[in-house]
Design goal:
Shape: elongated
Oligomer: single chain
CATH architecture of the largest domain: Alpha Horseshoe
Radius of gyration: 19 Å
Order of helices and strands: EHHHHHHHEHHHHHHH
Strand content: under 5%
Number of strands: 2
Number of domains: 2
CATH topology of the largest domain: Serine Threonine Protein Phosphatase 5, Tetratricopeptide repeat
CATH class of the largest domain: Mainly Alpha
Length: 267
């Protein structure tokens, strides 16, 4: 059974990507243009891409445009699609723009959670009570450090990667606070972004660590170097991947072999 867990009271802050780069809305949309064209025949893929575009725009503080894409995703009305991220982030956008959550946004989110049965999840129930007491009925003291709820799913990213369902795997990683995550998560995020949007340049989460340890022979830093080369139009060679796998085994990180093997799909 899939479960959804919310980590509440996370600092409401801009993503590392909005600090380290200055992409326009048009540039962000362009990154996903090819994927959108290829997904036209599949509502499910279009839904996943709209979510990813919305999230990327959100990370760069383009809240109005992010809202537009989340609403597009919802309007696709994809059967069995998980709309949790879209509805939660639409409330977060309310807060980012107006320092409040509208009752309309809250009601739509609650209606979805009730209809889908997700309100039975203890984490979601607590989260919605938090929103209600702080922004709707205002029965609490408003003493909180943050608003935006990060979530993780109990669905296996490994399984999705092995099935080459890269868009879905990427959608399970919240990139808004990737700078605070461990290096394995950063590498996973960077690889999946490359697999989904190709050679188009975007800030790599792993690069900050690589800058600190430029002479490291760990599989993670070797992977980061390969990803940088990939953005410069050099596709990973068999020797590149073999070298990473060799270091991975020396580091006793065999559980990440599936991720390194996915580098073969970087075209």
């Amino acid at each position: 059974m899939k479960k959804l867990f919310f980590i509440l009271c996370l600092l409401f802050q801009s993503s590392i990507f909005s600090k380290d780069a200055d992409l326009t809305i048009e540039q962000i949309e362009q990154i996903f243009t090819t994927e959108l064209k290829n997904a036209k025949k599949s509502k499910t893929e279009t839904f996943q891409i709209y979510n990813l575009v919305a999230r990327e725009l959100y990370n760069y503080n383009y809240f109005e445009k992010s809202k537009e894409y989340y609403e597009k995703a919802i309007k696709l009305n994809v059967s069995n699609a998980d709309l949790t991220e879209a509805y939660i982030n639409l409330m977060a956008i309310d807060h980012a723009l107006d320092k409040k959550v509208s009752k309309s946004s809250y009601d739509k989110t609650m209606a979805y959670f009730k209809k889908s049965g997700k309100i039975k999840d203890a984490g979601i129930e607590r989260y919605m009570k938090f929103i209600e007491s702080n922004f709707i009925n205002k029965t609490s003291s408003m003493n909180y450090e943050g608003f935006y709820g990060q979530y993780s799913k109990d669905t296996s990213i490994k399984s999705l990667v092995e099935k080459k369902s890269y868009k879905e795997a990427l959608s399970l990683i919240n990139g808004s606070n990737i700078e605070t995550r461990d290096i394995n998560t950063k590498i996973k995020y960077d690889i999946l972004r490359g697999l989904v949007i190709g050679k188009k340049k975007f800030p790599l989460a792993c690069e900050e660590v690589l800058n600190k340890y430029p002479n490291s022979f760990s599989w993670r830093m070797k992977t980061c170097k390969v990803l940088i080369q990939y953005q410069n139009k050099k596709v990973p060679s068999k020797d590149d991947i073999a070298g990473i796998l060799s270091s991975l085994k020396k580091d006793r990180s065999e559980s990440m072999v599936y991720l390194v093997n996915a580098l073969e799909d970087l075209k």
